[in-house]
Specification:
By secondary structure, the protein is α/β, with parallel strands linked by helices. Helix content is about 45%, strand content about 20%.
């Protein structure tokens, strides 16, 4: 299951529709607390975090997942409109598996999720 932290309902629907078309089971939420709860309950194959949600500390969610031993290895793809190197460095430093910067493209996200998951032993072909 891919868990998507995204506040915008239209973006949630777009992620859900596109990722499902690529064969992913998807759950979306706008709540950091809900994400952390669902990740802890498992199983979660990957997490997608939108950093551009004003009411959610996406970096805090990333750090919380990485600091908890049972969830540390979950691949995390971070979305951000920011294209600067400082944001990339910050996200990399917190343990992101991949950051997609700039304009959102759901097919790009799906392809990157496939790539990230292909490096996880339980998902590798």
């Amino acid at each position: 299951m891919v868990l998507v932290l995204q506040a915008d309902r239209k973006m949630q629907a777009r992620c859900r529709r596109t990722l499902a078309a690529w064969g992913f089971e998807v759950r979306c939420t706008a709540s950091a607390e809900r994400v952390l709860s669902l990740v802890a309950e498992g199983p979660c194959d990957a997490l997608v975090i939108d950093l551009d949600i004003p009411t959610v500390d996406g970096l805090g969610v990333l750090g919380a997942v990485r600091s908890h031993a049972p969830t540390r290895a979950i691949p995390i793809v971070v979305l951000s409109a920011a294209t600067d190197g400082a944001t990339q460095e910050l996200v990399d430093g917190r343990g992101s598996s991949r950051m997609l910067a700039g304009a959102f493209d759901a097919d790009w996200l799906a392809a990157e999720l496939e790539s990230v998951l292909s490096r996880v032993p339980s998902h590798a072909a």
